[in-house]
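Dear colleague,

Thank you for sharing your sequence with our group. We've completed the structure prediction you requested, and as agreed, I am returning the results in plain text so they can be pasted directly into your records. Please verify that the sequence below matches your submission; if there's any discrepancy, let me know and we will rerun it promptly.
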Amino acid sequence: MTQIDIDDLSLTELKALHKKVAKAIEGYEERQKLQALAALEVKAREMGFSLSELTGAPQGKSKRKPAAPKYRHPDDASVTWTGKGRQPAWFKSAVTSGVSPDDLLV
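Please find the predicted structure tokens below.
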């Protein structure tokens, strides 16, 4: 292992070293987790199960279903909004011009 005399390093060099060390630690922990997970999967298969069956965890990443549209553009029915997040410009302008949000419901 290389010895580094940190007393001779500048602040910039110390910060760069700090980033490298933090990244190395994170990578090491991730590799350890993957090795542990692989060993557990092998053991579960040996016993006739999948790891997700034993832990109750869903297999793969769960994907969120897209939200159904709630509002429709008054002039272009192909433009919709779910009612979540930021209000689109067309919705704001329609409401400002006197159209009720209930009139824009899908």
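Summary note from our side: The radius of gyration is 27 Å.

Kind regards,
the structure core
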